Amino acid sequence: MKLRPALALAATLLLAPNFAQAGETLDRVLSIKVLNNVVVDDYPPFTFIDKDNKLAGFDIDVAQAVADKLGVKAVNSVPGWEVITAGRWAGRWDICICSITPTTDRATVLDFIVQYYSSPAVLVVNKDETSIHSIADISGKRVGVGTGSSYEAYLDKTIQIPGEKAIAFPFENPVKVPSDETVNFQNLALGAGVRLDAIVANIATAKGHIDAGAPLKVVGQPLFGEPNWIAVDKGDAEWNAKIVEIIEGLRADGTLKAISEKWLGTDITRNDV
Fold first, then answer.
1. What are 45-61's pLDDT values in tens digits?
2. Contact yes or no for 232/116 (Cβ under 8 A)
3. CA distance 78 to 96
4. 53 near 15, Cβ under 8 Å?
5. Which terminal CB of the chain, N or C, has fewer other CB atoms within 10 Å?
6. Rounded distance, CA 30 to CA 185, Å?
């Protein structure tokens, strides 16, 4: 995904009210020497609980790289997706390096300040599935999606991503099954049609499960481009500018590329694709 759609996104954000004072967040972070980041813990390889019962993954490493540039400690919290996307954090958290896709609704309560990777949404089925070959085949099928995710909005036909082309919905009346994304993959792995018929998910997440041996496959073409941005509470222009500066520096010096290749085996952080 190109960063040029940021102009359209910025125009959308200007319509929403401001909640924070300029410089407030940066002053707090530098004063207490802590960057409070919010994530989810069930979205491998971006964020998950590792064998040592610690948060790990792509987003955790990006948050650490940002904290290193600020000269502070990164602290990652898991308040819940609905809490994150509700905004109005009131200083509890400073940033969401948490694989969040900007939507028109989310942009009313959060500032989406810089895209840091892009990876498309895809349809995933059990390897033994024979009746689902593309998204057009999910009508009447049980389709798992992460609760409150862009994939749930996709099945609801309500998703709108500022700056991106209109998304097509070539299906009718799937049976939406919102749940923890890891649980969705586990249920689909039980067999074709056992608990789920398909999942809508990020291609990188799907590939991670497949590479780990899950009996799954991706079918059809990518469903929609999914730019993932860093989000913050609304209104602190100085903080926003600082984070943009840091992310673009990490992109330029190869840090983002290295983190991406570590977790995904490829670079999804380029701003020219």
1. 999 999 999 999 999 99
2. no
3. 10
4. no
5. C
6. 40
